[in-house]
Amino acid sequence: MKDVIEGRVWVLGDDVDTDGIIGGKYLTIIDPDELKKHVFEIALPEFADGARPGDLIVAGENFGCGSSREHAPQAMRAIGVGAVVADSFARIFYRNAINLGIPTIEARGVRALFEKGDTARIEMRAGRVTNLRSGAAVRFPPLPQHLLELLEVGGLVEKVRLELEHRKAAAGAVP
Amino acid sequence: MTGSNGHGATLAEKLLARAGGLDHVVPGQIVEGKVDLAMMHEQGAQTVAPFHQMGAERVWDPDRVVIAIDHWVPASTEGAAVLHRILRKFAAETHLPHFYDVGNHGICHQILAENGWVVPGDLAVGTDSHTNMLGAMGAFAAGVGPTEMAAVLALGQLWLKVPPTLQVRVRGRFGKGVTAKDLVLRILGEVKTTGATYKAVEFSGPTIAGLSMPERFTICNMTTEMGAKAGMVAPDQTTYDYLAPIAKHPMHPVQPDADAAYERRVDIDVDGMPPMVACPYSPDNVRPLPDVVREHVKVDQVFLGSCTNARIEDLREGAALMKGQRVAPGVRFIVSPASTKIYQQCLDEGIIQTFTEAGAVFTNSSCSACFGGNMGILAPEEVCASSSNRNFPGRMGAKQARIYLLSPAATVAAAIRGELADPREMM
Ligand code: SF4
Fold it and tell me: Which residue, B80, B88, B83, is CA-closest to B45?
């Protein structure tokens, strides 16, 4: 994760649920390349074909509500979503997305600042999202250091992998 | 300073401070918590791939991992059979001895409760959203995703953001035929389904102190429907007496400070409270049952089951009402105990006979009709009276089906009358 993230924006409304992100009928798909074909099929049908890696999602309240399925952020990661910024998130989606290494930012008032196709700049440590077309900006409380580090290594799988390697090396050094 | 602006710690803060090895934590702080108990059900099959991607070879502490399959038991689809096989293979390879497999099965949360797997002071996590139920033990118990569960299996810890706490204080005495389920429905009617999002819910007050453990399980179970990260009751003599013969690990209870800082307080008085019902299509669409009874809501199916309300106490109460009565013509009444142990108790006490003689279907213990993917699935426009915890569109089958959430006694009353009914009139 970079400290400053820039990208083209796709805009979604309030209460986008996990069914709207990836439909229940796709939950047996394991291959990320297959999964990404169906991301936002219900909430934003033109997304899967039109998205480029690094594109950003801006959404309203309670993004990711509904079931606790991890497939939702997995599908977003598979297609290369660079970050998701919303007025608020459902709890389990927020955790799952961060654990998968997707910069996930709660910034009250962000939804109102953007239209489809705008470019956003997100300053992770400064805690600011700017619309580079209009110049409008909104501030957010930066993520705690712990979560910034989690994103920097690329998510929980990487973090634990590094931790286990570290432990093994330490155990090897002290017989 | 006392009251809601106090400086003391809530129960959730005490529990997370302990899990993090810290003296004191504040809401918003991130804690790396040491996990005391990790539970997986079928969704645990999804933890296997990330566990291997992490390069993990062994589980941090096999004695603190419980696997309990419950959604499809015995497997009712090929997909479920595959999930079960993945879990069995994983348990064998990583030497996990505590696997509650077919024949010794039950709803995962009930398995944890009745076998004493979670004790006061614990941090417990599970791959199911109703893991909150175990907070009734005076523990911090929360649902997690499969990738985080993989990290827990590898390291025995996970990050948690300390939640602010909503305190619910309850006073008064239940009238005849009014139960803990009616109380939690009433609370949901006030707090609503997003009222506790990201928060912990701590129940206290004289009414809570008087509740049995099974009743506390019912109440903590439905904090999930309030959006809460965890729901809990501080441990007391009732907790210790329940756990004394069964606790798997030593207890290390903590209590909230008298001057704890709660984000919000809700006060409930149950004196004179009637039975309650959550109407379609949300658990917070709560009304007094007598008001809804007047509208003559006919039912097609009745379900007495789920982790919320299928313990022996619930089934005894239901059987007492059912005795000598018949299930109304045209009504399908499904009764599913929450565990094999409860099933056996029902057998010993003649409860299975009472229900089946009355025309009910008494099934093996599992999630059964609760989630619309196993059995007892509803057709469009059908109406169901259920003792479970969710009534969102499509929860028990067709999107257009209508589900009413009730106490166990009220579900039996509906089965007898063929429409929603007030159980107090039959007692
Ligand atoms: S009984 Fe229902 S709510 Fe409880 S774990 Fe099973 S499906 Fe979930």
Answer: B83
